[in-house]
Amino acid sequence: MKQSGQYLMGNIAAYLAGFISLPILTRLLSVEDFGLLSLIISTLFILVAISKYGLQHAGVRFYEEYCKDESRLTEFYATLFWGSLVMAVLTSGLLAILWEVVAQVDESLYRGWLVWIIAGLVVMDIMIIRITNFMQIEQRVNQYNLIIIIKRYGNLLFGIPFLIFISPTADWFLFGMLLSAVSAFLLGTFLFVARDLIAPRHFSTEFLRESLRFGMPLQFMEISNLLIKFSDRYLLQFMIGLSAVGIYALGNSLSMYVMEMLFMPVTYAVFPLLMKTYHQKGLAEAEDFISTVANYLVLLAIPIVVGFSVIREDVVVTLASEKFLDSSTIIPLMVSGTILWGFCQLFGAGLHVAKQTKTFAKVVFIGALINIFLNLLLIPKYSYFGAALTTLITYSLLLAMIARVSFKHLRIKIRVRKIAFALLCAGAMIPFISLIHLEPRLLQLAVKIAVGAVIYFSCLLLIDSESRQLARAGFSQLHRLRRSEV
Q1: Rounded (to 5) percent helix, strand, coil in the chain
Q2: How many angstroms separate the CA atoms of 278 and 56, rounded?
Q3: How much is the average pLDDT of 276-296?
């Protein structure tokens, strides 16, 4: 549990780098260049997912079998390190060369050195994943956090000066990202070279084949999920243009920040506790535990969706400037859809408990097909609003499908009363928030968030006895901690 909390804090610290960079990028880049940057980063995610070949899953699966024998352990590290590097270089290099060939036919596609920057980023991202994967399975939490923080904040350290002093274009920010990734990779690799764990002489072709057989099927689900997340941006680019991509990408990014901050603790703290509860206390206790978590997440998610929708214009103008104001029109749809995706991962806990991850992958793939179909149907008529509507519909259907197959193994009971309480309290804060008008806009945004939170939780404590009990328990624990310090 302590390590889960450390991983969580490290990822939150790294995650904040993206939130810090958003208002800077939206002010330095044009809407079109922000759309291009979003499109390229989406492409990076997909290329990295393909080029990993599931070897990160093999690292987790086979470590316990190899760690007891020092000679086999070096084979484990060397094979996965060099196998990942060679396959990443070959895959990204082949794609870059193919793009250069296509660009010779259609010169409008040529972007100079950008293609090779992307290829380099794919290789570096895969190898950073490989290094941090090693650190995770060895429980080297501090080293893991150091690498991911260097990489994320390095994007700001290298990329922003390029935009300010050389050229405010996506190309130069991506070059800064590449320098940051190289720095993180070299530091992480040095830690393993110093321990003589990744010498090429220990490479095993047989173990690489075994790792690929295990990992590649699991990678299928990640790729399907990325298609749901990013296919709309490509279709917007082809059907409407980069400006529409930029407007949509901002609304999507803001919504994803909200969702991931809400559900990140589920990944790093709740799921390990769920598995521990299931194995030690049985199915009934596990269902009670995950149902309690889900109901409290509902109490947090509903006011976030309502509140974020009410203050959406303040958020967009404060974080991204007036030129992105149109993004505020899609935020209610986007934040609702992304929150539903967070619940999809939670509701799929039964498939993880029952080791039915292939079923999860199949359902997500069906969701990807639905998403592409709806985007093709709605984007030509409604542009980025159609893409946002598609996101909400897709994740709603996906949540229903995942619940249907996952609840056969572990049922999550959502109380209708909790939803009603949350909706009532969230509705109570709307008129108070709407009456607040202050200058500057940042102060107005901060006051609206504070007032909304006070009204919501005051209302909830007034009508929900379980929330009052939880609050009393929290205050009692805090009081005991203060007395112990004294």
Answers
A1: 90, 0, 10
A2: 25
A3: 89
| 153-176 as b/e: b if 16+ CB within 10 A | bbbbebbbebbeeeebbbbbbbbb
Across the range 61-80, mean pLDDT stands at 80
Residue 99 CA to residue 88 CA, distance in Å, equals: 16
d(CA 343, CA 356): 18
| Number of Cβ within a 10 Å radius of residue 72 | 15
What does the H/E/C string look like for 267-281? HHHHHHHHHHHHHHH
Domain range list for the chain: 1-203, 223-414, 422-485
Q: Taking 80 as the threshold, does the pLDDT of residue 119 lie above it?
A: yes
- What CA–CA distance (Å, rounded) separates 298 from 343? 9
Q: Where are the alpha helices (DSSP H) in 194-282?
A: 205-239, 242-265, 271-281
Other beta carbons less than 10 A from residue 113's beta carbon: 11
> Is residue 187 within 8 Å of 124, Cβ to Cβ?
no
pLDDT at 100 over 60: yes
Residue 25 burial class via C-beta count within 10 angstroms: exposed 0-12, middle 13-18, buried 19 and up? buried
Phi, psi (degrees; rounded to nearest 5) at 167: -160, 130
Task: Count CB atoms within 10 A of the CB of residue 106.
Answer: 8
Residue 79's pLDDT is 92
State the pTM of this model. Answer: 0.85
Q: What is the full DSSP assignment across 335-390?
A: HHHHHHHHHHHHHTHHHHHTT-HHHHHHHHHHHHHHHHHHHHHHHHHHHHHHHHHH
d(CA 42, CA 475): 43
In tens, the pLDDT along 453-469 reads 999 999 999 988 888 88
- The residue written with tokens 């979003």 in the block is 38
DSSP annotation of 30: -
pLDDT recorded at residue 7:
67
Q: Who contacts 206 (Cβ-Cβ below 8 Å, separation ≥6)?
A: none
CB-neighbour burial class of residue 275 (10 A; exposed 0-12, middle 13-18, buried 19+): middle
Nearest to 40 by CA among 120, 140, 104, 101: 120
160, 21 in Cβ contact below 8 A?
A: yes
3-class DSSP state for residue 112? coil
pLDDT of residue 19: 81
Cβ neighbour number for residue 378 with a 10 Å cutoff: 19
